[in-house]
Amino acid sequence: LNITAETIQQDVTSKGMCTEETANGCEDSSKAESTTNNRNDDAASQRIVSKIEKTWVKYKSCSAEPQDPKCECHQKVWQKDLEVFQKQSITKQNIKDATKFGTLYKIFNQKLYRTADCFFPARCEGIEYFLLKIAPSLPNMDFVVNTRDYPQVSGRFARDVLPVFSFSKTSDYRDIMYPAWTFWAGGPAIKLFPTGIGRWDIQREKINKAGLEFPWEKKIAKGFFRGSRTSHERDSLVLLSRSNPNLIDAAYTKNQAWKSLKDTLDEEPAQEVSFEYHCQFKYLFNFRGVAASFRFKHLFLCRSLVFHVGNEWLEFFYPALKPWKHYVPLDKNPSQSEIKEIMEFFRRNDDLAKNIAEAGYEFIWHHLRMEDIECYWKHLMTNYSKLLKYEVVEDKSLIEIKEKKSNNQKR
Ligand code: UDP
User: Fold this and answer.
1) For 327, how many CA atoms within 13 A lie in the half-sphere containing its CB?
2) Are 112 and 124 in contact (CB under 8 A)?
3) pLDDT of residue 224
4) Ligand 1 atom having least distance to the Cα of 287
5) d(Cα 71, Cα 65) in Å, to the nearest integer?
6) How far, rounded to the nearest angstrom, does the alpha carbon of residue 282 sit from its chain's CA centroid?
7) CA-wise closest residue to 155 among 175, 180, 140
């Protein structure tokens, strides 16, 4: 997967490949090729080629060893999130104030405790699965976990930043990112997952298998998206799909908040589909929802090319993924013509698309394993605990959290 200037030059002069299934869609793009864009000699295409080339030439692996046993790839994220507390440290009063924004947890004598109430029990379960694994090796500490979607600690106005753990944020927030509950439990409930998308270990295997069943050459050369209208940023893709069904298959599904056709942009909701179904398409789209969307990580496992729209909303593993190396970035709120342009570029440059798709897959497969998530939690909590500037004592009002028997079952 070594892209050099030379291979890029070969790529940009070669024609895009079409599979039988995609004959119609490819006709459109090859028409465009033969009239205006035969060798990507327009300025927009050259800019894309140059960005890919620079990124691939500069890219260095994030871990010294390929298996990344020390989970180095994500370390900078907790280092950055905790930086602010290096200066101000964390007091007992800070923790008390932070409990307005989440659930209070405690590690005491290698055991895990929390307040009896948890706003989203399945989300707490998803978090506790990992905390219980690492509690025996952690020092005493108190911490507050926000299980809502939205971050809580604005960095703009606060003088004293409160220590609140949230799964997702933008650079406007000072929340400490933790690996979302959905790696184990409590993810969004859709028809196919009535109790919520969870068990990343199981999803990894299943989607990976579907990805192998649809190798690149067999994939349909269309963009694909299914999801609800949690953000209007998705509208232009859905509208483009309606006018260009040969280029894109994107439609809104119904979520629990659905009230009328307005919530699916004046059309009947589409059926929900599995992640495995996504794997038959070459180009998969990710958008923010209320915060970061859980969809992102799943899409890579298809070995399809991921188009990631907007770069503001993060989860802990996003910074290690590099635009143009692992996915194709699009500015937030892309217009229909911007989407069309970039898709047509990658249809003409199939080898580049395939290389980026493979690199994205490789990264998620090797660096977002269950052990990477556990390892991230461990580094995060160990280093967080060092910032507490008071003695952590037992609190009899909290309940002890114990491992669920079902957690021992592999699947
Ligand atoms: N989803 C899915 N199949 C569908 C629709 C949605 O697997 O047909 C998944 C989607 O990938 C995401 C979750 O359900 O992980 C919630 O998607 P939605 O668009 O409703 O919300 P988001 O969290 O992306 O804002």
Assistant:
1) 29
2) no
3) 98
4) 24
5) 10
6) 18
7) 175
Q: Which of 168, 190, 202, 264 to mutate to test the pocket of ligand 1 (most atoms within 8 A of CB)?
A: 190
Q: What is the pLDDT of residue 64?
A: 87
Distance CA 154, CA 127 (A): 23
Model confidence pLDDT, tens digit, residues 118-145? 999 999 999 999 999 999 999 999 999 9
Token pair for residue 51?
Answer: 């960005």
Q: What is the pLDDT of residues 93-104, one digit of tens each?
A: 999 999 999 999
| DSSP class per residue in 17-40 | P--GGGHHHHHHHHHHHHHT-TTS
Strand partners, 387: none
Write down the pTM of the prediction: 0.91
CA 379/CA 388 separation, integer angstroms = 15
The whole-number pLDDT of residue 194 equals: 93
Pocket test for ligand 1, best of 149, 150, 199, 228 (most atoms within 8 A of CB): 228
Q: What does the pLDDT read at residue 354? A: 98
Predicted local confidence at residue 65, as pLDDT = 86
Q: Whose CA is closest to 285, among 268, 310, 260?
A: 310
ipTM computed for the complex:
0.99
- Beta strands 103-108 and 141-145 are antiparallel
Token pair belonging to 265: 């942009």
From residue 53, alpha-carbon distances to 3, 176, 323 in Å are: 7, 34, 12
- The minimum-distance atom of ligand 1 relative to the CA of 288 is 25
DSSP result, 158-178: -SSPP--EES-B-TTB-PEE-
φ/ψ (deg, to 5) at 118: -135, 125
Position 39 scores a pLDDT of 63
Task: Give the C-alpha separation, 178 to 383, whole Å.
Answer: 13
144 lines ligand 1 (CB under 6 A): no
Q: Does residue 273's CB lie within 6 angstroms of at least one atom of ligand 1?
A: yes
What was the pLDDT predicted at 404? 83
Low-confidence ranges of the chain (pLDDT < 70): 1-39, 158, 407-411
Q: Mention every residue, 6+ apart, whose C-beta is less than 8 A from residue 52.
A: 3, 8, 324, 352, 356
3-state class percentages of the chain: helix first, strand second, coil last, to nearest 5: 45, 15, 40
pLDDT for position 156: 74
